[in-house]
Write a structure and sequence with these properties.
Elements (H helix, E strand, L loop, with lengths): L1 E4 L4 E6 L3 H20 L6 H24 L6 H4 L3 H9 L13 H23 L16 H34 L6 H6 L1 E5 L14 H22 L2
Antiparallel strand pairs: 1-2, 2-3
Helix pairs in contact: 1-2, 2-5, 2-8, 5-6
């Protein structure tokens, strides 16, 4: 922890985001952008599938880390009941108590983003482009179900775009209206609290993340190999 001095108060820098969570966040963003850029382009489908596998591996890692990770990374810590979310939204402009991690509305936004990405990733495993490319599991479900998966894959992507727009809008609202920078803590990991408001957080040792990520990557690699073996 470090101390930040002002003329009026003394604030303490508290680590609220562990390194695995921050790496996941920015790696997922880059992988999503790469998926978008390679979707539908001539000769890009192999790279699109590769980027999709990266997204799926990251998501599987996040699901596990949401159970065993640091306090702020755990779903149980930031998924609030609907009543709490509505109460927070009603008084959001006047609400000045800093949250160690996601606020009640932000927690549900994260959950919805993860669900949308999971739907996109899973349906992508069964999807096809009606030309020569198809997901590694498309062989196992038949053409009609593969076409249905393709449709859901595309619809979920547009849903994701809408959620990302809301997410970015919320970040700008906090920055411009509430004067709170939500991006900086996701870069540094630290957020400043007064001594009276300091949260008690447990940061999981970052080395726990490595076997989780490796296991997720191996599972996705195995799923991708199913498509290769099905061709023989």
């Amino acid at each position: 922890m470090g101390e930040f001095m002002t003329s009026e108060t003394r604030e303490v820098a508290v680590k609220i985001w562990d390194l695995p969570t921050r790496i996941f966040h920015w790696s997922l963003l880059l992988a999503i952008v790469a998926c978008w850029q390679t979707a539908g382009g001539d000769g890009d489908m192999d790279r699109h599938f590769l980027c999709g596998y990266v997204v799926l591996a990251l998501l599987l890692f996040r699901l596990v880390w949401g159970v065993i990770g640091s306090t702020t990374a755990r779903f149980a810590n930031f998924i609030a009941v609907p009543r709490a979310v509505l109460a927070y939204l009603k008084n959001m402009r006047a609400h000045n108590t800093p949250h160690p991690g996601h606020n009640p509305a932000g927690g549900w936004m994260v959950l919805l983003l993860l669900i949308a990405l999971l739907v996109i990733s899973i349906t992508g495993l069964f999807a096809n482009d009606d030309i020569m490319s198809e997901g590694p599991l498309a062989h196992y479900v038949g053409e009609s179900l593969s076409d249905l998966a393709t449709s859901w894959h595309e619809r979920a992507f547009y849903t994701l775009l809408a959620l990302v727009g809301l997410h970015l809008g919320a970040i700008l609202f906090y920055l411009l209206v509430k004067k709170e920078n939500l991006v900086r803590p996701m870069l540094s990991g630290d957020k400043y609290f007064s001594r009276e408001e300091m949260p008690a957080l447990h940061m999981r040792n970052m080395w726990w993340a490595l076997p989780v990520l490796c296991s997720a990557a191996l599972l996705v690699w195995w799923l991708a190999r199913l498509g290769v073996t099905a061709e023989f």
